[in-house]
Amino acid sequence: MELQDETRDGLRIFSVDAGRETTRATLFFRVGQADETLPTSGWTHLLEHLALHDWNDPRLAFNASVGLFLTRFEFDGETEAVLEHLGRLARWFADPDLTRLGHEAKVLRAESEQRPVGNVVANLEWRYGARGPGLPAYRELGLCRATEVRLREWCAEVFCAENAVFACDTPVPHDVRIALPRGRGRPAALPPQALDTLPAVHRVRGGLVCSAVVTRSVAAGLAPDVLVRALTRALRELEGTSYAPWADLERIDADTALLVFGADVSTEGSATCGLVLNRCLRELAERGPDQALLDEMTVSRSRHFRDEQQAPAVAWAAAVATLTGHEVRTAKETEALAAQVTPNDLCMVFSEVRRTLLLGLPEESRLPSGFQEAGHRRWETLDATSTHAHVDGVSRILLGPKGIQYSAPSSVVTVLYSDLAGLITYPDGARRAVSGDGWTVVVEPSLLRRGDAVTAALDANAPASVVLPQPARPADEVPSRPPLPWRARRRTRSALRPMARLFERLPVSGWVVWLVVFLAARAVYAYVSSRP
Question: Are 3 and 171 in contact (CB under 8 A)?
Fold first, then answer.
């Protein structure tokens, strides 16, 4: 199955002849969730849904998906039907029908609200905040800003021939034209990281999840398989605390890849899973995998490449390589280069993994040596012009000309207007100010002194381009201002809390001293009161 490579009307086409009576094909676009911003999050997904609306043809199966950096439209069925619907899709992108925009946006909001935020999404949000790969944690908030004009502009920018590659297992007839609109390619890039220091640890509900940024290479391409085997031995075979470790490599551009990996972990293994992982990575960075393991992987790859059913995948691999700016290789070239990788090559890969690792661990898991808890950046001191106390008696909101700050005894979060990724607004006056690093200041006016002034200040200082208006919240989700007696008791307890802590720290002898002082004071008071 020789790989055919051609370009028609700006569209790169990779094909092989699998000798099938039907056709399997994928149209790739170099755009995904990581290419959006908080105000545009969900737009690519919305266009994908609109483009396939009302498709119903028993001659083929079709599907589409939006990933972090790639969007795929997949077809499998009769060759004539595949080519027909491919042309139909291309014509839609040239002149998109957006009459169902409001309805489909509503459907996607419902889907987004039900979608759980898993460990991988949480890890990427810690790493990148409300930018790039961290955006899936924010449930496509940009759907509220989608208009026909904005969607047409986004469609023309990303769904064009120069930003696409077509792969199929049947040669495309010479008279077939896939008339995508013309434009230009969009190279992928990772945003700045939200954390000052790595390696670091954040906490998850359960299991183990990690991400690391590595230099793209043949050895890095083998790292997921090596990791799965190493973690399976360490966590499953030796510790007996995991069933199925996993790993994946997200190729970003010609030089950079994002390695994401993890494992399910039993309750019994939660406390030590971080220590086991750290030991495993240290051994891989110092010695690399055994040569016997690499030889075993070489045999497995050789069997895979010789499987005729797998041969058409070379067209899909070429498409992904092209969109990520990498060299297109044949299966034989890939196999030969992988066979030359040594344990030392993988030592360098895993040394880079350890330097850039962000590790998600359960709350009860012990912190591995060399790691620190992920936390706030060093916040800029806010020059506050007004202070708004919270009804809890311990926290407050500070407003200044540069931003807003939440302050409590155990936490301080600052969102500068210059770094405002999005301002989520609700009709009842509530606001969520989200920084580019992903930190959020929550404003509930009913729970703040002069809370309406905080809402007004945010609305006045936030650029219109980052305002994200949301539908009205259910009445039971809108907090009401507590009654005055409750607030008075809360403030009294807060005022007395420092004194209570002081008494808690006193030794027994200290209590005796206080008792003596109290009794002496009472005696003096009684003596003075009894005198005429």
Answer: no
